[in-house]
Amino acid sequence: MNSVNNLITHEGRTRLENELDYLWRIERRTLVHCITEAAAQGDRSENAEYKEGKRRLREIDRRIRFLMKRLEVLKVVNYSPEQEGKVYFGAWVELEGESGEVVHYRIVGSDELNPKNNAISVDSPMARALIGKAINDEVIVHTPGGAREWSINLIQYKPFD
Questions:
Q1: CATH topology (fold) of 81-156
Q2: How far is it, in rounded angstroms, from Cα 22 to Cα 62?
Q3: Which residues make Cβ contacts (< 8 Å) with residue 12, sequence separation at least 6?
Q4: Where along the chain do its domains lie?
Q5: pTM: predicted TM-score of the whole model, two decimal places
């Protein structure tokens, strides 16, 4: 995996660490207790609560292992004042399309993708076109749907209000 795929914002790393902590300290412990109670009820071969609990425990353990390994290789990219005025990793960008539509995106690592919150991967065509650009620059984004032209209206390293 190339190093760009290992980049993450401080907020993104905190979210993953919180998820790991929750899964390990709360959800897993609660589930183990439920499985123990279900097992005490007798025949496990026909005990749906026991079987479902064990299945869910495997899912949680798999996610815990993934998060532990992933957190070892992630590199937090912190904001630097030299970034001001240009689009780099972690930036919130306001763009205006040819038809006047205005969109907002944040450039993040693959572990932070969230289309609902307009968090796009640094590896996406949009992010690749924006990196290093400044306010009022025009960018052409090549996507499977064709090329689109955008103008950069605003760049900041804190969330839009």
A1: Chitinase A; domain 3 (3.10.50)
A2: 14
A3: 108, 109, 111, 112
A4: 3-76, 81-156
A5: 0.83
Q: Indicate the helix (H) or strand (E) that contains 91.
A: none
**CATH of 3-76 among 1.20.1560.10, 3.40.1740.10, 3.55.40.10, 1.10.287.180:** 1.10.287.180
Structure tokens at 68: 């532990």
Ordered alpha helix ranges (H), 9-47: 10-22, 28-39
Structure tokens at 33: 């207790």
Overall residue count recorded for the chain in this entry? 161
User: How do the pLDDT tens digits run along the chain, 161 residues long?
Assistant: 445 689 999 999 999 999 999 999 999 999 999 999 888 887 777 788 899 999 999 999 999 999 999 999 999 999 888 888 999 999 999 999 999 999 999 999 999 999 999 999 999 999 999 999 999 999 999 888 889 999 999 999 988 87
